[in-house]
Specification:
Elements (H helix, E strand, L loop, with lengths): L1 H15 L5 E3 H8 L4 H4 L9 E3 L10 E7 L2 E13 L8 E12 L5 E4 L10 E7 L2 E7 L7 E8 L6 E8 L25 E5 L1
Parallel strand pairs: 1-2, 2-5
Antiparallel strand pairs: 3-4, 3-11, 4-5, 5-6, 7-8, 8-9, 9-10, 10-11
Amino acid sequence: MKNRLFIFTFFLMVISCKAQVIGTLEQFEECSMRPNRDQEGCPDLDNITYVKDTNNKLNQFVGTWKGSANGKQYEIKLEKKINYKNDPSDDLSWDRIIGRILVKDTSGNIIYNSMNKPDNETFFSGFNFQRTVYVMSFVGNYDCLESGDIFIELKVNTPNEMTLFYSQDKDGLLNPAKCPNFSTFVSLLPTQKMTLIKQ
């Protein structure tokens, strides 16, 4: 009787366990470039539950990077997360980069700091590649429309140098009560390419 109960319980556990279906970053990058993606999506990738960095392309970005632009000093820490979900209820997990930023003015005063925030509160996380460029989303002061995409890429001949480009969102609802200085608000990140050096 005990053996039957054990076998039955084990059988139920096996049935209830969902097998993880692995896809690659390359597959999802290829999907994003399909000309008919907006109409048809990528049905061949619908069953994937984990998007894996099988070729370790993310590893090249991991580390601490420093640079300056427009009178600001930047320190950016990038960490690779394996099988990561932004929200535990998400069906799909990714290998991705989570970023943290420290920004100082010319006097050394801290303007922005997310270095000690938990992963899900840095609001700076990667999505996928566009050829050699890795795309990350960023939200700083959302009330002042400080959000957008960050594009990072290593320089071909100098892999300890990385370029960063920030494309600020143009859409959004501005609440002047929460961002009273919007007319003089300067973007936290430079909207021109800047170079960062690996430390």
